[in-house]
Amino acid sequence: MKKxxxxxxxxxxxxxVLGGAxxxxxxxxxxxxxxxxxxxPGVSSDSSxxxxxxxxxxxxxxxxxxxxxxxxxxxxxxxxxxxxxxxDFTVTDLDGNEVHxxxxxxxxxxxxxxxxxCGPCKxxxxxxxxxxxxxxxxxxxxxxxxxDGSRETVDTASAFLAEQGxxxxxxxxxxxxxxxxxxxxxxxxxxxxxxxxxxxxxAFSALDxxxxxxxxxxxxxxx
Length: 223
Description:
This is TlpA family protein disulfide reductase. Pfam families: AhpC-TSA. By secondary structure, the protein is an alpha/beta fold. The chain is built from 5 helices and 9 strands; from the N terminus they run αβββββαβαβαββα.
């Protein structure tokens, strides 16, 4: 019996870890449902893009306004909502040249974090590629690859892009600067940034074509 004790303890620990992981996954899944865009505080949802908020079901996108907070008791009717500037970061292009998010300020930015091993990332990539072909002259698409050097490398990511024939501009987060700056813990993650460099909306799940259009409409009204 004593000889089997370490094995029994190991099995119990494994069961506890597995159960904890399941509970965490369930809670996150309930908190961040697929096809959901959340607006940054100070961003009004009363725009042409908000038409997708009607009765979400199935693949229908929903738009959540995170500025709806409990009243503090202070009169804020005359104060302007606080906007959040998109934090800068450094990534590299395929040739190893440094690229900064701030380099793209002046036009709206669609910032996406992805990896070639990520199924949901691959499912949304065709829509991103099509929207880049449509809006690429007016909107910067910054596709940041989660290049950890083991599960994902520059070679595996670039090979995937070449195989699929995507023309999207891709940058490699080999030093984790972008991922750490934006607190990315799940893929895909997408941020929509206006031409002035302010965060407008974000999503922590794969986007379909309709939801991607909703986000673009929020940062590029002419779309």
